[in-house]
Amino acid sequence: MSLYGVMRTGVSGMNAQSNKLSTVSDNIANVNTVGYKRASTEFSSLILKSGSGNYDSGAVETTVRYAITDRGNLQFTTSATDLAVQGNGFFVVQDANGNNFLTRAGSFVPDSTGNLVNTAGFQLMGYNIQNGATPNVAANGFAGLQVINVNKMALQASPSTKATVAANLDPSATAFSPAVVAGPPANYTSKTSMVTYDNIGNAVTLDVYAAKNGANTWDIEVYDPAGNQLTTPGPTTTFTFDVTAAGKGALAAASPKSLSVNIPGGSAFTIDLSAMTQVASSFDFKATVDGNAPSAVDKVNIDSKGVVTAVLKNGTQLPSFQVALATVPSPDHLTPEVGNVYSPNLDSGNVQVGLAGQGGLGAIQSGALEDSNVDLANELTSMIEAQRGFTANSKSFQTGADLLDVVVNLKR
Hey, where are the domains in the chain? Predict the structure, then answer.
């Protein structure tokens, strides 16, 4: 047995216990860090081959592991932009240099330019779904992702292009002949209005006139408040209803199913009347119209699928972005980076990007944050273990040194 080997083994043990104490210290320091994942030091022995008559002491080496897949508890907040993932996914974030990372730290707030950033300054990434766009997800990369910016949701005017109508015309109404004259019509059975928006967000009211001109036959026209006829090709579109046992008051097969309207200063506009009926009930007209006037953002809502919806001060709701989630085949092998983020490597595997609710990525919880997964009691216990282990290794080093002194003093 070599006394030098004993001292080297003691130094190895002290270094190993120092590494353990370092991870414990880091864990305790980040016990309240949102989304922090606990680090641990794992020990493995290094054995030297020895002969039958002597033993050469080896050493111990350490490996640091991160409990990235160990989820922390959720704490609920009052901010809609505080986000947590209930599943295996990670938020995709970007630093100031455009580099993408993964994180579970979802404490996002708008910065001075409207970008959603977390406490480490990383920007939240997602897909633009304004105007009904479909997220163009690249499953194996970050292509198509944009920084989610709440300021871009404000003051946007969207022209109306379609109205979906659920209406009923009263079959007991008296027919007019002729039903329609130069407008707005003097003879009509029922009238209603709907608000639409032109290309720059001005509200344009459309007056819809329905006049019964015969059994199961109705003329429908659209005018603006100034009396200008707007229906194309105009002036009148005649609708007929099937009152047989098969039709049950729905529009007849040969009847038109929609109206085309020219909105002044606006886009081509279609009124979908395919659901209109003529059954034994009073006149009823309900319309859902797209488009909106420009308005400031009042608040932002984020649903479980990660859809970021701007609620404007005029009450309009605009789905604008969808938060991206990502994962890797082996999350515990991700490389930790400064700012409580992770980057993929050869051991973790390639990034797989998707949306909430897909492929085990999980749902997004708005108004919540994921706590650190550090157990303070366990860390304090590990601290005591590391302290005792370091002290014991220092004693073996000291004993080896004392014995070496005895050997040196033999010459005297």
Answer: 3-70+373-409, 74-156+296-370, 162-289
